[in-house]
Amino acid sequence: MKKLTSTIIVLLWSFGAIAQTRTYAVKVIGLKVGEIHVTKSQKLDSTIYNLTSKVDVNFLVYRLKVDYRVKSVYLNDRFERSEVKVVSNRGNYFTKTERVGNGYRVFSHQLEKKKINKTIELPIESTFAHLFFNEPGKLNNIYAEFYADFIELKDLKPNAYLGELDKNFDEYHFENGLLVKMVKKNPITDMVIEYLPPNKKSR
CA quadruple 29, 31, 33, 36: dihedral positive or negative? Predict the structure, then answer.
């Protein structure tokens, strides 16, 4: 009986995943327009980052409604693959990145009918979804799963970084190694993403 109980516990542990979830409010001019939920789960030697976000915002000149989902998988702390699916009022898009040998194969359909089919030979040490749980420290770039490109990082101040991708700029602020605030710079108005501690209400 004791042996059977031990076997069941091992099986449950093998198939189950230990998960941590962080929730963020998405704000424009101080008003909450959506939320981001990022979950980190551990399953055997794999670490899985799932990001889901729903945003509905009016930028005066246009309205944006987005359902954004990212899954990034690491095996023994090495990035293996990611999938991104975007459903919006401006179209539906996807990007898939997968390790092939020492590089990565990418297939992507992005904004303005842009399609990408390429191989990345540079190492990928961190990704956008990974960033929510892992301060980049001395890393010079992180991989943006949707754009299939790298965000170049520069130090702003201790525990804060400026990221640039295709002339778009973001700020990343960390506490105790975890992302607490992100500012996405926009010519019309900035979008602010702030961590919501458990049981805290956001307006």
Answer: positive
